[in-house]
Amino acid sequence: MMNHVMKIGLGVALSFMTPAQAAEADNFKLSNNQRIACSRGLSAGKLNTATCKSYAYVFNTKTSEYFRCQVSMALTRDNKEVINVQSDGGCTKKPRIFDADSSYSFDATETEGPNTNSFFGPGGYAVWASDNSNLKVRGCIIISSGLGSDIAKCIDMKFE
Fold it and tell me: Is this model's pTM higher than 0.70 or not?
C-alpha cells in the first residue's frame, strides 16, 4: 500500500514540475537530490492515515534563481477501504544565489524530520551552487526561524 502511495506522490510531483521545465528547457534543471518522507497515524475509530511529502528544486542554470517545489499526499483508510485521498503541491521562487549570469550547477537537500537531528524541526534546507566556468562554489543553509520567516546564510568556498 505504501509503495502505491509513493508512486502516486512521485507522479503528482512530476506533473507539477513539467510546465516549469518546458517553459525554458535550456535554462532549467531539476536537482538530483529529491527526498520523500512519510508518516503514519492512527485515529479514533481505527482509521489509518499516511502522509507523504517530497521536495525538489528546479534551478535556472543561467541566472542561479531556483524554485523550491513541494508535493504532499494524505491517504486515510479503515480496515476495509480507502476513505479519503488529498494531495497538494506547488513551487515557490527563491532569490538568485550569484549576482551575475553565467553557467551554474546546483543541488539541494532538506533537513531530517523533527525526531532525528533537526533542531527546529522540518523546514530547513541546504543549497549548493557552482559556476561551471570558474572555480567558484557557494554553500547556503536556509532555516525557518519559527517566526514566519527564513534565515539564509551563504558562504563562498575557499580553495586551498
Answer: no
